[in-house]
Write a structure and sequence with these properties.
Blueprint: E1 4-5, E2 8-9, H1 10-18, H2 36-43, H3 48-53, H4 75-85, H5 99-104, E3 125-126, H6 159-166, E4 168-169, E5 174-179, H7 181-193, E6 224-225, E7 238-239, E8 252-253, E9 260-261, E10 266-267, H8 276-279, H9 283-289, H10 346-369, H11 375-411, H12 427-431, E11 444-445, E12 460-461, H13 470-474, H14 479-486, E13 489-491, E14 499-500, H15 501-504, H16 518-528, H17 534-540, H18 559-569, H19 577-583, H20 594-609, H21 623-629, H22 634-641, E15 647-648, E16 663-664, H23 673-678
Parallel strand pairs: 4-14
Antiparallel strand pairs: 1-2, 3-10, 5-13, 6-7, 8-9, 11-12, 15-16
Helix pairs in contact: 6-16, 7-10, 7-11, 10-11, 10-14, 10-22, 11-20
Subcellular location: Secreted
Organism: Cyanoderma ruficeps
Protein name: Peroxidasin
């Protein structure tokens, strides 16, 4: 069964593309900036499979009849496909001529932030690279493709084998310093910065067989093979996986490009920390989220919580969604938010609810202070304040706990905007480094009442919290979930205790005949994206090149872990980046190892220094306004936007006991919007 958009079968479209890519073992959808509206509408209706691995990307409507891939052999057809797909215009140049607007406000798609390079950091552009990609054939085949061999004639281990041998764990060590909110803010932040666009189709191009039903490396399918002695999966089954969509013209020999370009992947989101998870990453998405019925600058609202008078997120509209898979348990559709993954798990949904409410709270207060402002001005000023609060919380309250004193010193002080810095997300960051947050996830979502005791319905195993908005509607709202995030210790990342079994053995079990394994997915995705091995990044980060496994002893002191790496990989030159980053010893006072610290500081420095709208950049806010923005805290956002939470710690990332370590919301500083708007003037130019 295939989804249809404007009468065009995805199967047919996939077959068309396969004609000039199958021989290269490369699925080749393309960027299509001209159809952003249709793209957004379509991706909002995509299945849980797409939510897990990125978004389906479709090219402009090809005739639905009379086209098969083996017909497409002539230059005429290649030219036609290039024109229809947007390949001929994939280096789009946005219009940044409205200086009045672009000096004051961000675009929703991230374009025109850097006026010299207007597409840097924009949505639907390629991830950036620190190192040359590492593909088996040099330009598009993943390392280990078809169980092929790599360095020193040693085969790469199956990702699932790496997961079961050294990543999955039943043992959990609580973090004695930081709460589960440390993990949750990391995920919410990640969904503001990156999401990889998945293949054009979830079905095999060669014959239309769904990738979920075949165990082959036949584009776009790249199934995760399961070892014969796997502890869970029997009968030689595999796990569903499809390759990420490549940037148009990359990863192929092309009559269109007249050259060979290594396969690159597409970031669906803006790279900047701009609250795109609240507002969307295209102009079309932003308009779908806004309440345009009045001149109040609000986001659309859902049902009212009777006890508080506050709104839940609106429901997504359209065909049945992944949140309604089991009508007996989940009759509630997915919530609609700025990022399509808002329903992925309930803690994340609670965060989206908080920040959608925060926008509407700020916009409402601005309207009361400035009754002459129109809806667009209220919206953009509220959006600017919300984005600044997120930046401040991330860099002053969250990152110091992750990176510690050593990492913050490596990050360095802010010295102002640098237009020569590309703030685009690094492929290695999105595909491996920032996935360190998976090691911080508890196997349960805790739900606590006003006295921080379990609610009547109890805590939830993580696999039952996936795509379950009905639990917010019917089991106490967002407050119990929020208390469970800031009132419970997080999971400590111990090198021998990495991903809990809810993630490696039960991931999205409702959606798949074989439950997925997040660790195996991370490793497979790294190979799909041509992420170089761990040793290459050691050299980049000024660590020694490890010729032998004993050379890893300074960063991986545990001999048993080094022996597992030796047994799995055979050579240090083959070790995948993700598992190696996860087993490095923590730098004292941090939650990361040395190579991971290097990669995180590199990315977060670029995100800060390459953002013209960075909240500390002179001219973005006046000194008086900036003083108020610096009052922002996640604790205050929770106080203002939860339903009834009145007691919490000043720093919700820091473990505290009830009630001794907590204070009243009345004692949590707030951003004084009176002081913020005092320096604002009505815009002298229209906002479109």
């Amino acid at each position: 069964m295939y989804s249809r958009v404007r009468g065009v079968s995805l199967q047919a479209t996939g077959l068309v593309w396969a004609g000039w890519t199958a021989s290269l073992s490369s699925s080749l959808p393309c960027q299509h900036p001209h159809n952003a509206a249709s793209f957004s509408a379509f991706t909002r209706r995509s299945s849980a499979l797409a939510v897990t691995h990125g978004f389906l990307l479709w090219c402009s409507a090809l005739p639905s009849a009379g086209y098969r891939y083996n017909d497409l052999v002539s230059p005429h057809y290649l030219t036609m496909i290039a024109n229809l797909s947007g390949c001929s215009a994939h280096r789009r140049t946005p219009n940044c001529s409205d200086i009045c607007f672009h000096k004051k406000y961000r675009t929703h798609d991230g374009s025109c932030n850097n006026l010299q390079h207007p597409m840097w950091g924009a949505s639907l552009t390629a991830f950036q690279r620190l190192l040359k990609p590492a593909y088996q054939n040099g330009f598009n085949l993943p390392r280990g493709f078809s169980l092929a061999e790599d360095a020193r004639d040693l085969p790469l281990p199956l990702p699932r084998l790496v997961s079961t041998a050294m990543i999955g764990t039943e043992t959990i060590t609580p973090d004695d310093q930081f709460t589960h909110m440390l993990m949750q803010w990391g995920q919410f932040l990640d969904h503001d910065m990156d999401q990889t666009v998945a293949a054009i189709s979830m079905s095999r191009f060669s014959d239309g067989a769904p990738c979920s039903e075949v165990c082959s490396n036949d584009p776009p399918c790249f199934s995760i093979a399961v070892p014969a002695n796997d502890p869970r999966v029997r009968n030689g089954r595999c796990m569903f996986f499809v390759r990420s969509s490549p940037v148009c013209g990359s990863g192929m020999t092309s009559l269109l490009m007249n050259s060979v370009y290594a396969r690159e992947q597409i970031n669906h989101l803006t790279s900047y920390i701009d609250a795109s998870n609240v507002y969307g990453s295209t102009e079309q998405e932003s308009r779908e989220l806004r309440d345009l019925s009045g001149q109040k600058g609000l986001l659309k609202r859902g049902q009212v919580v009777a006890s508080s008078g506050k709104h839940l997120l609106p429901f997504a509209v359209g065909p049945p969604t992944e949140c309604m898979r089991d009508e007996n348990e989940s009759p509630v559709p997915c919530f609609l938010a700025g990022d399509h993954r808002a329903n992925e798990q309930l803690g994340l949904t609670a965060m989206h609810t908080l920040w959608f409410r925060e926008h509407n709270r700020v916009a409402t207060e601005l309207a009361a202070l400035n009754p002459h402002w129109d809806g667009d001005l209220l919206y953009h000023e509220a959006r600017k304040i919300v984005g600044a609060q997120m930046q401040h919380i991330t860099y002053t309250q969250w990152l110091p706990k992750v990176l510690g004193e050593a990492g913050m010193k490596m990050l360095g002080e802010y010295k102002g905007y640098n237009p020569n810095v590309n703030a685009g997300i690094l492929n290695a960051f999105a595909t491996a480094a920032f996935r360190f947050g998976h090691t911080l996830i508890n196997p349960f979502l805790y739900r606590l009442n006003e006295t921080f005791q379990p609610i009547r319905q109890g805590h939830i195993p993580l696999h039952k919290a996936f795509f379950s908005p009905f639990r917010i509607m019917q089991e106490g709202g967002i407050d119990p979930l929020l208390r469970g995030l800031f009132g419970v210790p997080g999971k400590m990342r111990v090198p021998s205790e990495l991903l809990n079994m809810e993630l490696t053995e039960k991931l999205f079990s409702m959606a798949h005949s074989v439950s997925l394994d997040l660790a195996a997915i991370n490793i497979q995705r790294g190979r799909d994206h041509g992420i170089p091995p761990y040793n290459d990044f050691r050299v980049f980060c000024n660590l020694s090149s490890a010729q032998e496994f004993e050379d890893l002893r300074n960063e991986i002191k545990n001999l048993e872990i080094r022996e597992k790496l030796r047994s799995l990989y055979g050579t240090t030159k083959n070790i995948d980046l993700f598992p190696a980053l996860m087993v490095e010893d923590l730098v004292p006072g941090t939650r990361v190892g040395p190579t991971l610290m290097c990669l995180l500081t590199t990315q977060f420095r670029r995100l800060r220094d390459g953002d013209r709208f960075w909240y500390e950049n002179p001219g973005v806010f006046t000194p008086a306004q900036l003083t108020q923005i610096r009052q922002a805290s996640l604790a205050r956002v929770i106080c203002d936007n939860s339903d009834h939470i009145q007691q919490l710690q000043r720093d919700v990332f820091q473990v505290a006991s009830y009630l001794q370590g907590m204070v009243s919301c009345e004692d949590i500083p707030a951003v004084d919007l009176h002081a913020v708007v005092k320096d604002l003037q009505q815009s002298s130019c229209p906002i479109s």
